């Protein structure tokens, strides 16, 4: 049973999630950013992706850092596709398919 409070809560959660993602695009569209800022912003996706990759490759178990070799093996073809094609979509597809096949075989 849906109550008005639940509907309000769902709409509120939607706005809190949606607004911070959309508002920056609306503001940036109206202004011209300086070239140095645009150059710096180009590195943001690489930094975020690198953080995600290193987080999955290296795992901390107590006081020891362990390398997850399954992720390292999946990283090799994914990085080759990323460097060769520079296509984010193709890179993600290769990474997901490679990891799925490795987990299927392991």
From TrEMBL:
It comes from the Bacteria. Coiled coil: none annotated. This is Branched-chain amino acid transporter AzlD. Keywords: Membrane, Transmembrane, Transmembrane helix. InterPro entries: Brnchd-chn_aa_trnsp_AzlD. The chain crosses the membrane at residues 6-28, 40-58, 64-83, 88-105.
């Amino acid at each position: 049973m849906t109550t008005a409070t639940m509907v309000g809560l769902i709409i509120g959660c939607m706005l809190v999630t949606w607004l911070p993602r959309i508002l920056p695009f609306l503001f940036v569209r109206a202004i011209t950013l300086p070239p140095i800022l645009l150059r710096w912003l180009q590195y943001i996706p690489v930094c975020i992706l690198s953080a995600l990759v290193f987080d999955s490759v290296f795992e901390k178990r107590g006081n020891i850092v362990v390398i997850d070799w399954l992720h390292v093996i999946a990283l090799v073809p994914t990085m080759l596709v990323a460097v060769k094609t520079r296509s984010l979509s193709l890179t993600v597809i290769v990474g997901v398919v490679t990891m799925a096949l490795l987990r299927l075989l392991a």
